[in-house]
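The protein record passed on for reference:
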Amino acid sequence: MELKYRANFRLMMDTLLQTAKRNAMKYSKPKDQMFAYGTAGFRNRSDLLDSVLYRMGLLAVLRSKLTKGTIGVMITASHNPEQDNGVKLMEPMGEMLIPEWEIFATELANAKDEDVATVLQRIIASASIDTTIPANVFFARDTRSSSNTLAQCLQEGIETLHGKYSDFGLLTTPQLHYMVRCHNSQGAYGQPTEQGYYNKLSKAFLNFRKLVSSGSGDRGYSPKIIVDGANGVGALKVPQLISFLEGTLNITVCNDGTTGKLNERCGADFVKIQQRSPDGLSVIADTKCVSYDGDADRIVYFYVDEDGSFHLLDGDKIATLFAGYIQHLLTLSGLELNLGLVQTAYANGSSTRYASQQMKVPVACTKTGVKHLHHQATEYDIGVYFEANGHGTILYSKRAEELISSTCGNTSLSESQRHAASCLECLVNLTNQTVGDALADMMLVEAILYARGWTIHQWDHSYTDLPNRQLKVKVKDRTVITTTDAERKVTTPPGLQSAIDEEVAKHQHARSFVRPSGTEDVVRVYAEAGSQILADKLAYDVAIHVFNLAGGKGDMPRPPDA
């Protein structure tokens, strides 16, 4: 009977694959358009993505069948302009799609319409997928005007292969990651609803404040925060989170989407790159300001002092704040857990020295891309990872969570040890371990600043960033640049690394590296030095070498004073 059922189901699947092929004609792939799935999934102009979304609906069903779990699909282009959109898939525990399936996604997205069924059959065979297994998909979208139409394309792809789905409407990307993990862990990680998300964060935040209020308290701490919501979905979610916080934070949301455009002269990416306050936000001197990106998976802090000077506290500053306080709690609790900080080559050299030399926290460097940092962070009992752009979180191993929990209730230990462990347990529950999360990371920052009794000045002055500069150099073919040592050294073209080394040797406290863009024929140059003038000069000098040795195209880089 079982064999007959499976045979009949496979016959039905063959029919469904042919239906998938016919529907692919309805959502025809744009001629001569090629797509590539990367860390950010697929991103492009929204009017080019109907075929991609339909096909990712098909792929999500197959991935669900293979993993026997619910797969997440988020429709967003994060910090890209309003006219763009994109899509990315999530694994059952809320992680990003595994690399092997990124290849499948790219192959399916680029298949000719008439070859869609053939590619699906090849994926089924290659991954040994039992097509009789039921499939389930969670999906959500950001606030882009194109997202609703693209959601319909995705939905039809899911339905074509008879997958079940839940449409959560407007969510931040991290909220969907969270819900997927909650659902697949049968509620062990939390309730897979938006209210469940707010409940978990707020409960942990309020419990933490109660634990520390009789200790260090809030000496210089201010609960006032101005949030730049990037005119995106995060701006819509902050008021909902506030309603759970019992008045503990005084948050004003600007760039909430009522007037400005998504990510236009606002948001975390704009603030980080331009080193200035966003439009649409009235800055009050010495007041904490926060910028999210369009889908609220990045966060940076900033403030303007009484002299009008702008101060950025980016992912590096957030990471060292987290790692430093966790280390403090580990010392107080007596817990012997391996804590590490993971950065990329873009991390400011001062942050790396501060963490490794003053905090004595081991620092690892990985290639650019959140998936590389996330993977490296799993090597520690507690792994803090952040890109300088503000995307990051904290990972706790199962062993760490169990030891922290057992220490809280271990009456053979001192009260101060149990108290520190209880504070650490609150931080575990306040963390979205699936992905960088602007809302959760903001709550973690505020919790730690409250416990430390710090103003934003005190946090900012924990170390001073070295002045730095980033430039782009257009080249004929970016693949002529190859790198090693987590992208900090160039292996080709010949002579380029030695030229960079010679330029760096001319300055004190300097370093520079170059790496090819993952999406366009440009080479990115990073330089830092003891002053802004020297950092600018170093970046320019290195850019000239890149232009001359790596096939520069168009105008040569211009000197800093041009």
About this structure: The mean pLDDT is 95.
